[in-house]
Amino acid sequence: MAREFGDVMLGSIELFCMAAEAQSFTAAAQLAGLTPAAVSRSVARLEERLQVRLFVRSTRKIRLTDGGRTYFDQCRQALNRLSEAERELTGTQAEPAGKLRISVPTTLGHCRVLPALVGFRARYPKVQVEVQLSNRNVDFTADGFDLAVRARAQADSGLVARKLMDAELVVVATPGYLQSAGVPRSLGDLAAHECIQFVLPSTGQTVPWVFRQNGQDTEVGTSGSLTCSDDLLGVVTLARHGAGLLQTYRFIVEDDLRQGTLVEVLQGLGGRSRPFSILYPATRHMPLRVRAFIDHLIANV
């Protein structure tokens, strides 16, 4: 309990985290082998140094203030990293363990990453995985993520981007829609069709459709009266119900194509794909659980 951490005793931070997790000075004291008064004094010294009230105290329990919650999240991450570094250096962590927090896109999450998690957990039962399904960029430090998977790597010099896969794009519609609206044969035909639009959360702009024509990559601005944002599975649901044409990833609709509930069109103009990448903070020390998950994801997605 006497290790120095800047001007603050690291032990005070450890006691603060214990108290926050237990919501009780008494419970934290029992874990640390101290008296409740000693824990309370330690937290009070920390509050005095920070000039921030960390807990709201009542006769029965304590709870974190907003400032206390922010401080706790950062302290817990820092203490976890210190523990991991010690375990790896001393060889006491023979297998991945601890909490893994990841953010993945809704589409790839549902179709590939979540199914792959079952095998990962079976192989590494000591790792607890928390998944956020989101298409928005994340703040790794503020949000406490270990890694994220994105189709468009966010611009951040502090991040490492490791390619996960190339996802092929296809244009699809239901047989019923094509029977009533006709089958497009060229890019020019798209103007006469209802093209379901997806809005990128990061830009607020609709995503252009991309094709390969005469060996050249071509972007086409399409139009339609139905637009979805945030969750790409929304536009897929619309397409499955006959709302119009949709350009999406093949891995999302491969079962529909196999069953004939959706039909691929403009195959001669296909061949385009978008890369998905694994993003994680650039650091010399990567926790074993993060390294294991990245290897598992690349092997199984």
Q: What does this 3D model show about the protein?
A:
The protein is an alpha+beta fold and about 300 residues long. The protein has 3 domains: about 5-90, Orthogonal Bundle (Arc Repressor Mutant, subunit A); about 100-165 and about 275-300, D-Maltodextrin-Binding Protein, domain 2 (3-Layer(aba) Sandwich), CATH 3.40.190.10; about 165-270, Periplasmic binding protein-like II (D-Maltodextrin-Binding Protein, domain 2). The protein has 10 helices and 15 strands. The protein has helices at about 10-20, 25-30, 35-50, 65-90, 105-125, 140-145, 175-180, 230-240, 250-260, 290-300, and strands spanning about 5, 10, 55, 60-65, 100-105, 125-135, 145-150, 160-175, 195-200, 210-215, 215-220, 225-230, 245-250, 265, 275-280. Strands 5, 6, 7, 8, 13, 14 and 15 form a 7-stranded mixed sheet that branches. It has a two-stranded antiparallel ribbon with strand order 1-2. It has a two-stranded antiparallel ribbon with strand order 3-4. Helix 1 crosses helix 2 and helix 2 (about 25-30) crosses helix 3. The protein is elongated and about 80 Å long. The relative contact order is 0.14.
How can the largest sheet be summarized?
Answer: 7 strands, mixed
What integer is the average pLDDT? Answer: 86
The helix/strand order is EEHHHEEHEHEHEEHEEEEHEHEEH
Question: What level of helicity do the residues show?
Answer: 40-55%
